[in-house]
Amino acid sequence: VFDAALAQLSLAASLATGRRLNLRRLEQLTDAMCATVAEFGAMTGAPGGVLSGPVLADDVRRDVALRRFRSQAVRAVAGTDHYASLFSALELDPGRLTYDDVARLPTTSKTALRDAPGRFVHRDARPVTRATTTGTTGRATSVHYSDYELRVIAALTANHMVLRRLIRTGDVVALCISSRATLALGSVTSTCQRVGAVASLIGLVDPIDALAQLARGATAQSPTVLNVYASYLGALVEQGLRAGYRPRDFALDRILVGGEIVTEGLLRRARRVFGDIEFAENCAMTEIAPAGGTPCTAGHLHLEPSTGMVEVLRLDGDEPALPDEPGRLVVTPLPPYRETTLLLRYDTEDVVSALDGPLACELRHLPATSRIAGKRALALRHDDGWLFQRPVQEALEQLDVVPLPARYGYWRAGSGVAVEAYVRDDSIATRSAVRDSLLAASVPVTELSLETDPARLQRAHAVRADLREQSFIAQPTQLQAAGQA
Amino acid sequence: VIAAVAFVVVTAASAVGLALAYLRTVRLSRPPIGVFNRSDITAMTCGIAVAPGLYLLLPKVLAGALFGLTVLSVIAFTLQPAPPPTWVRRAILLLLAGLAIAVAGAGGSHSRAFATVNAAVVILCVVGITNLWAQTGMRTGHLLVLAALLTVYDVVFTALFPVTSELLGTLGSAPVAPVVFWPVGDAGLGLGLGDLLVLSAFVLVAYKDYGAAPARRAAFSGLLVTTAMLVGVAAGALPSLVPTMAGLGPLVVASCWSWQRRLGTGRTVRDFSLDLHATPILQGGGDTP
């Protein structure tokens, strides 16, 4: 009890002063959480507050966030080429920034970071890892991290996973994510090590191969947790249903899915293969780590204010978006979490909506936006407003006639949009079902093109399941093996 | 003298019994994160070593007030999960504080009325503190280390150095004294708060970790050793200020060591609570599995 209290005090002191976190204390906190769960079965009260500090009134929170933003700006101007020249051109003193000054500061674009990552690296920092994004919407972006940052991110991930009971002692965690997702792989592996679980890297191999490894009895310890991209989960579901897998074939207890839009249709269909187990959605991003979001049961995305300052700016301007208006998610990772690649007002190019009024969900103490609606680059303006990926994908993935993951594209056509999608058959019934589903999801579809061969799609969006890795041996599925026997 | 021994032993037995009843029926609020571990033993030992020095440095009135406030906050914590509303609990606290001050003022700290009220206050403290230990996950192994350290402390600071006697001199005249005693002539026969805490924790941890039978043995052997030492002091066979832990400590250490070897590290709080629901312990006789 005493060392857990000390660890919490140490964390709170670092958050208040911006001084480096005590890594030993941070790791002690994870150990204390695991010990608490082992001793009592659960944590009581509001353990989430342990990581974010006390719940603050909105105006106090704004003041604290501004103070921490200033401190990061001072460091960025002193140590990076990009922000030194930017502040000089704007004649802004980073140590005296007001919220009005912050609003004048241009957002940092993904392109700027992608084109010259070195201009954002603090000259005194000692990077040890260059993490890259998967680059599904363009060339991969790279971000440098120091050893301190990697350990902080790993410890925070572990604390988050233990707090939400996503990874537990004795679990076998199968990782179906890209081998290039350095941060995610490192953090989850480190979490497993800390809590006494086993990390099992499957990767993005042929889904049939992955299913064989996930199945009960395929390895000495059957996986109990699957960490997977949404689109690859779709591929697993599709192949699993085709190969005759049923829930009894797996020992999975939880599926941690994220990295892309997760639809209700995907989860409903995934339950047919993996059973009525817990699905937990996560939202993390290489560029802004360890800042990230946690979805709640009310469908909001709650962003941890202690790790980053969050803004929602209009899609076609740099003014704050109005409540319920879609906007770009702009995040500034704050000290003491980041010290190498420093980003001020980083435009994630993810589209969310600011929320209006007090929240009533279980995470109401944390600021929130809507769930991510899609990428700004894939947003389409039509006569009645904007179209994003989420409604199209929700509409398609809830239909069994659409193979998972949904393959689709859309573009402007007349007053509405044209949608193309990959389907199992191009019958009248299918066409009608797809059109009805799209219209029900408020997609103003004026033209519909259905293809039974995904290669024939003209503007389909890339998905992470496409980052397929090769393996030497294609393993037979458990059922095929049983059939041969 | 017989009445004094009987009063102290009955008070000690009541403290143990009430602490056990509390453990079976009341769940204290605990911090969201954290389990009793070695860091708590270290912190407690440091606190126990430093606190007497601090009390001795302060003027008697201040030391008495500080100790009284500490005791009140412990009792408030102990009563916190009780069903009566907050104002009733506050009224009980005020009543206890007023009563303690009144009897100390009226009859002095050597009166029987003071001894009785003081015993009630000490019992409440023992119930709260030992339950906090047991309910935050104190195990037999922790108690073994704590008892060993306290034995050394008690022998050194009671028998070899006059710290305990000076502390009793400072706090003995306060409205609340850290000792359960009964006046005998100009002096009194008593048992220190620390000894009562170890005795009570001995029974509680045995009960939580291993069940009713080890707890019964702990209660019986602990009270026997304590009674024997009280009788020894009353009969003049032992010095008037004897470190009780010199007798109780080895018993606790040996029992804990033996249980650990034979029965393992003991149940978690979760398993204990589940077992408590499964088999009502008032009826139980054997060890809980």
Question: Can you describe what's shown?
Answer:
The complex is a heterodimer of chains A (485) and B (289). Chain A has helices spanning 2-17, 23-40, 49-52, 58-79, 81-90, 99-104, 110-115, 147-163, 182-195, 207-214, 230-243, 264-274, 389-397, 428-440, 478-484; strands spanning 127-132, 142-146, 172-176, 198-201, 225-229, 254-258, 278-284, 292-295, 300-303, 308-314, 326-333, 346-353, 368-370, 374-375, 380-382, 385-387, 408-413, 416-422, 445-451. Chain A has 485 residues and is an alpha/beta fold. Helices cover 73% and strands 4% of the residues of chain B. Chain B has 11 helices and 2 strands; from the N terminus they run H-H-H-H-H-H-H-E-E-H-H-H-H. Chain B has a two-stranded antiparallel sheet with strand order 1-2. The longest helix of chain B is centred in the N-terminal third of the chain and has 24 residues, at 2-25. Chain B is globular and about 50 Å long. The A-B interface holds A 1-6, 8, 29, 32-33, 35-36, 38-41, 43-47, 49-50 and B 29-37, 39-40, 42-43, 136-137, 268-270.
Share of helix of chain A, binned: 25-40%
Average pLDDT, all residues of chain A: 89
Largest interface comes to:
A-B, 23 and 18 residues
C-alpha termini separation of chain A: 56 Å
Cα-atom radius of gyration of chain A: 23 Å
Distance between the termini of chain B: 43 Å
- The SSE order of chain B reads HHHHHHHEEHHHH
**Average pLDDT number of chain B:** 84
Alpha plus pi helix count of chain A: 15
Strand order of the largest sheet of chain B: 1-2
In terms of DSSP E residues, the strand content of chain B is: under 5%
Number of strands of chain A: 19
Oligomeric state of the chains?
A: heterodimer
| Structural shape of chain B | globular
Percent range of helical residues of chain B: over 70%
Query: Spans of chain A with pLDDT under 50 lasting ≥5 residues?
Result: 481-485
